[in-house]
Every structure is written in structure tokens, then in C-alpha cells.
Design a protein that fits this description.
130 residues; 5 strands
């Protein structure tokens, strides 16, 4: 069975490397920073899951990235997990309203992140077999 493909949109280089190492043990990992994703993204890969860090350092806001994902024919149906250090209920509600499937607070424990990844991949696989 082929490994699932996970797209990670993250601006912090250390976090990107860590996520690639941690998640890359079980899945193919594709890394983008927010501005490269927003302006240069190639939709030719069929991703199975997207992880977006909303704590973006570049000029592109996390909400803009969500809107781009949800407006894309190829990406809109893919599960989107958003992570953020912001704890406001308003931000969480806004992110979910924009189409995120899950909102997780930083720091996210490895086990919790892996559990969320596996849950969303399982739901997607189940939905595709109906």
C-alpha cells in the first residue's frame, strides 16, 4: 500500500524540519511556506491531508491560505488540520467556519497530532469507499 501524502504549510524552518522528520516516518511529506503555497503552489500532487500552521510569519495570513485551499477544485475536499498558538475562541470559530476540519493549539503533543492525522485519513478513506 502506498504511503499517504501530507501537505504541510509552515513558515518556521525548525518546525518544518521537525514535522518532516516526525510525520515523514509514516507518510510522504510535502513542505511549503505560506507565501510559496499562496503564489507558487502546484496542484498536481493528490494530497491526502493538509496541515496548516496559522501562526504565519510572512505577509500571507492563515485565513487567506484557508480560503485558497477551499477555493481549489483539487484541495477543497481534503481534510485540513489547523494549528495555532492563538487561543481565542473567536479565531477557532472563524477557522472552522472557513472550512478547517480541526483546530489544534500549540504546542501540539506528537501523539495528539498523529491521532488527528490518522483519524482524518481514516474518515477520508471510509468516505471514498462508499
Amino acid at each position: 500500500m502506498e504511503k499517504e501524502k501530507i501537505l504541510i504549510i509552515e513558515d518556521d524552518e525548525d518546525t518544518k524540519l521537525y514535522l518532516k522528520y516526525f510525520i515523514g516516518k509514516k507518510f510522504y511529506v510535502y513542505l511549503y511556506n505560506s507565501s510559496d503555497f499562496y503564489y507558487k503552489f502546484n496542484e498536481s500532487v493528490n494530497y491526502d491531508l493538509i496541515i496548516l500552521d496559522l501562526s504565519i510569519k510572512n505577509k500571507i495570513e492563515g485565513e487567506q491560505v484557508i480560503k485558497k485551499i477551499k477555493s481549489s477544485e483539487n484541495l477543497r475536499k481534503i481534510s485540513l488540520i489547523c494549528i495555532s498558538a492563538q487561543t481565542s475562541l473567536e479565531e477557532k470559530e472563524n477557522v472552522i467556519a472557513l472550512g478547517a476540519d480541526e483546530f489544534m493549539l500549540k504546542p501540539v503533543a506528537n501523539e495528539k497530532l498523529m491521532e488527528a492525522i490518522l483519524t482524518h485519513l481514516y474518515k477520508a478513506a471510509k468516505a471514498n469507499h462508499k
